[in-house]
Amino acid sequence: MSEAASTDGPLFPASEGTFFRSRWVQAPDGVEQLDPARLAPGFRAGAAACGIKGGGEKDVGVIVCDAEGVSSALLLTRNASAAAPVRVCREHCDGAAIRAAVVNSGNANAATGEQGIKDALAMQQRAAEDLGLEASAVAVAETGAIGVPLPIQHVLEGIPQAGAMLSPEGGAQFAEAIMTTDRGPKQCSLRCDGVTVSAQAKGAGMIEPGFATMLCFVQTNGEIAKPEGALRSAVEGSFERISVDGQMSTNDTVLLQSSGEAGKSTPEGLLDAVLLQLALEVVADGEGATRVCRVEVRDAAKPAEAEEVARAIGNSPLVKTALFGRDPNWGRISQAAGQALAGEELPELGPDRIDAKELAGDEAEPELSVRLGRGKASAHLYFSDLNHEYIRINAEYTT
Amino acid sequence: MSEAASTDGPLFPASEGTFFRSRWVQAPDGVEQLDPARLAPGFRAGAAACGIKGGGEKDVGVIVCDAEGVSSALLLTRNASAAAPVRVCREHCDGAAIRAAVVNSGNANAATGEQGIKDALAMQQRAAEDLGLEASAVAVAETGAIGVPLPIQHVLEGIPQAGAMLSPEGGAQFAEAIMTTDRGPKQCSLRCDGVTVSAQAKGAGMIEPGFATMLCFVQTNGEIAKPEGALRSAVEGSFERISVDGQMSTNDTVLLQSSGEAGKSTPEGLLDAVLLQLALEVVADGEGATRVCRVEVRDAAKPAEAEEVARAIGNSPLVKTALFGRDPNWGRISQAAGQALAGEELPELGPDRIDAKELAGDEAEPELSVRLGRGKASAHLYFSDLNHEYIRINAEYTT
User: Which of A214, B94, B172, B225 is the one with CA 20 to 30 A from A19?
Assistant: First the structure.
């Protein structure tokens, strides 16, 4: 059964018959797309508008796994100014057995002091009571403005309202409830060899994760032998490979839940493909983004060096404006690589070592490659362009 | 004798009676300003238009110290993709006894292969012949587009033309000849206790020096006991403290020349003040810049940590757009500091630790301070805002 996918990506045009719309995502054999609102069997989600965002927009979401034998993995931002919900998850969640998550958007509950911690704990407690779970089985995530006290009464009233909406087809309302400056919801539901993976993500700015970006929730009814390792590996190949503006968020959270009720393993590659597609949707929805570039750095002395050069290139405002201006300006790429390797020996990086041709074309997904000539390591990064709209959004989005 | 200063700075309005127009520059007692075109006694400069920039704009400059007993110091970029003139200076200049410099603007002669090295050597040789000096006594500097072959014949013809214009009042034409996207020339000539320091600088984009930024030439007839140490110290407090876009140039060069003919030491603090003023003019002339912010990071565990946090803040596009938008958005500052300290223990950075009030005002030079609460080290950085004009310049300035 294959139903029409309704997910909107601003850059990647829907190819016929497949959910994976970027040329960089490899779909596993036999994958079929389901209605993106349909969660993996055994999961339910709901959402409500509690008034943080205003205008009746959904801003509280709840997602729950009905199977008691859930296994889970939770990755959290490494930012030293981590938000209250991140701190609460670190200290009060059993990362291996998370049954549910409660989320609000419009307020990050970051840099909100002791009150912020109390508020995040209250959210966790209210959701746990409402769902009949232990508090440690509920993850809390929040996203939005930093440093603004959370209107906790509104959120506490919203949680049971979202709980009342819980449904196996609740993925769409949940994806909507976690949006901030996103141009659209990011979600999918895919089935392969009888196992479903559904996922919802949000993110548009403050994107350069230490390991994850902003919020992403992934559900499967397949078994995953080592959820933490599987999630870490999938995130390393997806959310850790994107940068909108080089800024690591205070709230990054990725939650994987597996009910195991399908009685078989989640097919290899499916989790990786889903996360990469959603990560690409996040970078493509980078604030103001009109293009996403994949830079591949080869022949580095070691992997960390390749990574550093790739990030120096992807985060250079000169390269990002050249991407916007369709300018195959390899000189700026040479400069950025040379800065990352300051003080090191480097062969001259000219057009024989830098292929920047695709920057000039009309392709929404150009590729760029650099050969450093120092060894055999490589790394890649997906980054968006820097343009007037980014300035407009961030100069006008005031506290 | 105090003559009118004609230097134009886009942000710092001229205060009456003093050259130092930023509140951040401390003028030494008894300093008097001379015509900024007047070089320190014993120095001459000249310039010509050789056709690189076109439109009759000056693009070749020569500066020379007539005293055989010159002492000098030369600081060069650490960028691993250093330009040909930087490589030539490293290998073929006697840094301690540089009598002259030859410069062109409009072409950086960077990433230009073996031919670029030959061209830079040819410039050095031609200037040396023209001035009757050893080649090793002539520094070469270039600035402009990267990866474009230098029109060497034009430059070689321009060098004797610039040499024919050599004059003790040649500072202004020389400052003009080194400009690229600069809004105006950056130069000064100051006298204190009978010793003159004159200087010319350029720079507007690709500004976050490893130790220096773009090009700066400084002359004095005073004695400087340890030119390299004095220059390094002055640069650490000036050009190393600014960032326009976080990008270390391939061509950064700072040359200090001292004739010693005044028979007394260059007054303490004068060199530091001159370089800080010029560095502030460079960041104030950052591409599109409308404001310059000074961020002070205090109470860090060690100096390198303070420095890292200051740079994370000053280079964050979210902070830079907030500076443009007059938004005292301390949340973005908290996030940037937390990213720089990822994985470390950090007290919550809220409004009690971040003073961002001045971002909201009309002041062209707002100050920002952050107390990390981790130790006693501190660091500061001057950075410009990020706005539409930066995008326009860099998306349209194609190769």
Answer: A214
